[in-house]
Amino acid sequence: MSRVLLLTHRELRAAFRSPVGSVVVAAMLLIEGILFYWAALSQKLLSAEVLEQFFYHSSGVTMVAAVALSMRLLAEERQTGTLVLLNTSPISSHEVVLGKFLAASAIVAGATLLSLYMPALIFVNGKVSLGHIAVGAFGLVLLGAATTAIGLFASTLAKSQVVAALLGAAITVGMILMWILAKSTEPPLNEFFGAIALHHENFRPFMNGTLNLGAATYYVAVTYFFLLAATKTLEARRWR
Amino acid sequence: MIEISDLYKYYGDYRAVGPLTVTIERGQVVGLLGLNGAGKTTTLRILACDLLPTSGQVRIDGTDVVDDPERIRAKVGYLPETPPLYGEMTVREYLRFVAQLRGVSTKEVTKRVSEILGLTELEGVGDTIISTLSHGFRQRVGIAQSIVHRPALVVLDEPISGLDPVQIVEMRRLIRSLSGEHTVLISSHILSEISETCDRILVIRDGQIAASGTEAELSAQLHGGLSIELTVGRPEGVDLAALSARLRAVTHVERVEPLPPRESGNNVTTLRLTMAEDVRQAVVSCVTNLGCSLLELARAQRELENVFLQLSEARTVPSETASPNTSNTEATS
Q1: Which of residues 69-128 of A touch B (CB under 8 A)?
Q2: CATH at residue B176
Q3: Which of A39, A90, A175, B38 is deepest in the core (most CB within 10 A)?
Q4: Is residue B165, in this structure, part of any structural domain at all?
Q5: What ipTM did this prediction achieve?
Q6: CB spacing of A82 vs B89 below 8 angstroms
Q7: CB within 8 Å of B62: residues ≥ 6 apart
């Protein structure tokens, strides 16, 4: 087993042996369920609109869950003193970051897949395309991965999990709010801010069921950027 | 095996270690003895590739720790002061994880973990969750993780601290059993651990080696000889002054001092003898010729303690007043 998968395996086991993993997944499904009932089932909407509402609310819950899961990834190791085990083992910093990222992303993606019973319920009284559901779910997985990478980066900076969560949330909210800057600035700045906003323009195509390559590339780029930043931070702090 | 030359480590303006030059042979158990803040942990962290030296050279088996840290990390096992344990794992799972992390192949890992559980006497708790273990067992799991990948060098930072007397005896036996196959470097500020476990002692003071050698060599370095404690039962007619005078007359006995008697009873006397050379046989003959009964003869209990204090105290005050950079608390241990 490669060291990356070894670390992923340990992280997944740790997340579900402690209440963290189960509580986050359960809370995610519960809140998404309540929002789905409140926003979609309690009013008269077209089937496609119900689905859009579902993806819109789920995206918010996914971002919160990703920050909650990723805050502990390295801050907890630093807090409990186990980071020294990784630091003094022949494993590179990018393997550590990748192993931990894969574990947290897998939990977020797994919870997203579990939540898809809700859009499936639309088939009882309406009709939506499976493609729309698949594209929306893909968007949620990409958004979850990008937010997990942000949270992981924050976790490499902070000594405590609370600080890591606050920092991760601040970066995430800051990136979401770029769309406000986009609205209040003149061209070409408005296009730039719109393009780098974490949610608004980049997530809307997925909500509508459009597989937009530019938006997908954006989320992959954000993920890569923050994983790289996390690796460099870990490397700088590891061996000084 | 380990060659350290002109090593320095600074935290800001504070010199935690340096200049430090020492060579350690393969298969030895070497103790790093010093007061808190002397630079023991910093030195060990540099050897474990957890800390970058400011200057100087550290080579393990010919490989420089700065040039090729990955290679060094694969051949060093490190137990920090607080064992790095994942509380939610069982002992067996944890050791499997560490072994694979440090390059033990999947095929070999089950066998190796079983061997280590046996060697560290952890078979009984192999399937126990680590967070439920006592301090002694956790410390032992810490040692197990440091040797699971058969490292050439095992670095143990204060492995005996906080253990009860029975656990201390077991831990000493375990550390002794590692010599030969592994080179072991342990740090401590507890004298008995060092004197009874190590082949060689390095006394570290103010980031520098203050003295090096076996317990007897260190003692000889300071006292210029051997110090023993003698408890005898005197017959009627032999008083303390006469006994002391006769012992002082033995060749190479330099000093005879009375101590509080180690045993109760009439005419029982305990004396400390300082000798330029080992003349214990002559001392015993002298005692028996006087008609005294020899109740106990032992190397002076406080001898190493005195050696340690004298070697460590010389420059303790300046090093304490030069306050370390508090932004990095690890620097002070």
Answers
A1: 80-92
A2: 3.40.50.300
A3: B38
A4: yes
A5: 0.89
A6: no
A7: none
